[in-house]
Design brief:
five-stranded parallel beta sheet; binds cytidine-5'-diphosphate; alpha/beta; 55% helix
Length: 211
């Protein structure tokens, strides 16, 4: 049972993917954390994010701690958004994600290109989205809760430029897979969004069994 969850920044895809993993008792991979780990490596060395060559070197030995708060810091987020557009960086991280997706029993992966590139044969695909304004509000709350400074106007601008980079890049751009269910969480509470995601995934999985 393989579930792919994709969507733009702060859409709620991480929360939904974790909840689906718990519901279906599956292991979960937050693939954004891989790109963030590469970014953190590069940042710690003082490497140049505008160099694809240096970014690829930063893909080596990313024995990372997914709970490291630095992974979510502003400079690391910015670098992750830049280096994730490099085809060679995406290629370096591909196998690890495919292997995770192929494990016995299945898995849940969330990211930008899970349903399109990493696991095009996934049993259920969700494309989680929300308006830029709602996503910016969520990101502000998240940053403030972590004691980090956050201003709505700056965060909104930043999200929009990230969306542009994600959807405009040539290598694995953010796009809804043809066979993905769209879940707009703009008007939903977390509990409602999770319930809807479970319902959509269950419907898909049932459909797959009768095919
Ligand atoms: O939700 P947010 O954009 O803040 O972060 P994330 O999902 O942790 O992703 C971090 C960065 O990695 C983003 O800039 C994404 O564009 C990129 N990413 C990607 O290119 N492909 C993926 N499968 C996952 C993340």
């Amino acid at each position: 049972m393989l579930i792919a969850v994709d969507g733009p920044a702060a859409s709620g895809k991480g929360t939904i993917a974790r909840a689906l993993a718990e519901h279906f008792k599956l292991p979960h991979m937050d693939t954004g954390a891989l790109y963030r780990a590469v970014a953190l490596n590069l940042w710690r060395w003082g490497g140049d994010p505008s160099s694809e060559f240096e970014a690829v070197r930063a893909c080596e030995d990313i024995g990372f701690n997914p709970d490291d708060p630095e992974l979510r810091s502003e400079p690391v987020s910015k670098i992750a958004s830049v280096i994730s557009a490099y085809p060679a960086v995406r290629a370096a991280l591909l196998e690890r994600q495919r292997e995770f997706a192929a494990q016995d029993g299945g898995a849940v992966l969330d990211g930008r290109d899970i349903g399109t590139v990493i696991a095009p044969d996934a049993d259920a695909k969700l494309f989680v989205t929300a308006s830029p304004e709602v996503r910016a509000q969520r990101r502000v709350r998240e940053l403030l809760a972590r004691g980090m400074p956050a201003h709505y106007a700056d965060v909104l601008l930043d999200l929009k430029s990230r969306d542009e980079r994600d959807t405009g890049r040539e290598s694995a751009p953010l796009v809804q897979a043809d066979d993905a269910e769209r879940l707009d969480t703009s008007e939903l509470t977390v509990a409602q969004a999770v319930a809807e995601a479970v319902r959509l995934a269950e419907a898909r999985l049932k459909l797959g069994h009768t095919d």
